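Exercise 3.2. Students should predict the tertiary structure of the chain below and write it as structure tokens, then compare their answer with the key that follows.

Predict this chain's 3D structure.
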Amino acid sequence: MRRLNWKAPWHAKATVLGVLLLLVAGGQMFPALEKFGKDKQLRITDQIPASMGNWSKVTTSAPIQDNGVNYNEIYQALFTHPEFGRMAVTIEYTSDSRRQFELHYPKICHEIRGDQVSEFPSRNLVLPDGSIIEAAIMTWQQPQGGNEALTAYWYVTREGVTTNTLKLKWDQALSGLLRRPSEAVMVRFDSFYRPVLPGLQRESRMKAVDDLVSHLKHALKPDLSRQLFTQLDEV
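Answer key:
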């Protein structure tokens, strides 16, 4: 079977998006889906320490239900650092990536709520063991001078790590139609801007992300580290 080229020209991507819309529209004709593996857990919250290097956790959000979309787990916490300032960490896990249970897609979510979003080339982050992980990079700013942050994120599936939202949405659309629903994780870091010179802001935020990612990878037990940084295993 020929693989789809996710870096194809825009008209090819438009075709894929058209098929996705048809699949979604077709899905409306069927009864509400029952979530596959709804009781599965990675136990994320229990395994992330409140202090990592010079980073200290100041708040943790309670689990949420988002417009009827329920996750197996969602970890949201705000950390602070004496040099780098504030960083939000969000980790979502779903055992069923069909539309009713899909992950948040950062760019899409921020555009829907009216934020100004700018995307940048993906960046390779060097982990403590010397391995590399690719992270998608974007910035967002709320209207009328609200919060502004640099966001680094990636998804983890049974196939490994990806930053390709279009491919993930395609797999999600087919999930449950041609095979068993698939699991997925999103790992996201939001480094909030501080009042410094504009030319220094993005690089300063990336240094903050590099630092906390490295500390998080080092702090995790091997099983959860693999699930968040390498490949999603059977849970």
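Discussion points: The CA atoms of residues 96 and 183 lie 5 Å apart. Helices lie at 10-27, 44-47, 106-112, 165-174, 198-219, 222-229.
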